[in-house]
Amino acid sequence: MLPCSRIMWTALALVLAFCRGALSLDKLNMCMDAKHHKVEPGPEGYLYRQCEPWRDNACCTSNTSTAAHDDNSYLYNFNWNHCGAMSEQCKKHFIQDTCFYECSPHLGPWIQQTDQSWRKERILDVPLCQEDCHSWWEDCKNDFTCKTDWHKGWDWSSGTNKCPKDSRCSKWTEIYPTPQSMCEQIWSNSYRYTTYSKTSGRCMQLWFNGTNPNKKVAEYYLNNGNNPKPVWANIISALFLCVTSLILTGN
């Protein structure tokens, strides 16, 4: 076992490193390095319709928010209607998903580097509130699609996405039998299904009004990761035990 004094110095070094890392980049208020994101978040005087809740602090511009509502918009030339016309009740969730992705300044804990031609960073395993995932799936369950993962594998020969040659359009529930399968698979695990409700403070909300509730959620995960106890709490506990040992033993 390491001497307690050595553990103390190691713990203190970790605290300093942790603090320097926290100060080096404000992950509670940042924009990812992607195709249409601003360099830094900030207020926008006007954001269009479903993107409006982010206007006080956004990573998207007004033009991006407007394009998020368009079919085959210039943002990604993505065709929602690849298996016939997508229902309006389903499409509204994809618009909201686009607003969340483009506009949210509180995705720092889940931003990862990626090697893609159109972006240098992506989000991975963002914990999604159960209500948002379930309502998305419920409103799309009578629609059709031909692919599980919409991030890749499309036929882009026409300039917009079409179903691959050997695929077929199937009912939504055949491709995604559960809300969890849809939310986790549709964008290559950008989202992680949770059983947390919107009132828990432990999941990110696609839909909200008023003050953005996701900053506090991001802060929780930034401090805690997947552990129930914050990193700093574990370090303090170790330091307390070491100090107690030094007092009792005189070492």
UniProtKB/TrEMBL annotation:
GO molecular function, one term: signaling receptor activity
Listed InterPro entries: Folate_rcpt (IPR004269), Folate_rcpt-like (IPR018143)
GO cellular component labels: external side of plasma membrane
Folate receptor-like domain segment(s): 30-205
Pfam families: Folate_rec
Signal peptide: 1-24
Keywords: Disulfide bond, Signal
Domain of life assignment: Eukaryota
Transmembrane regions: none
Family the entry assigns: Belongs to the folate receptor family.
Protein name: Folate receptor alpha-like
Organism listed in the record: Sphaeramia orbicularis (orbiculate cardinalfish)
This protein's encoding gene: folr
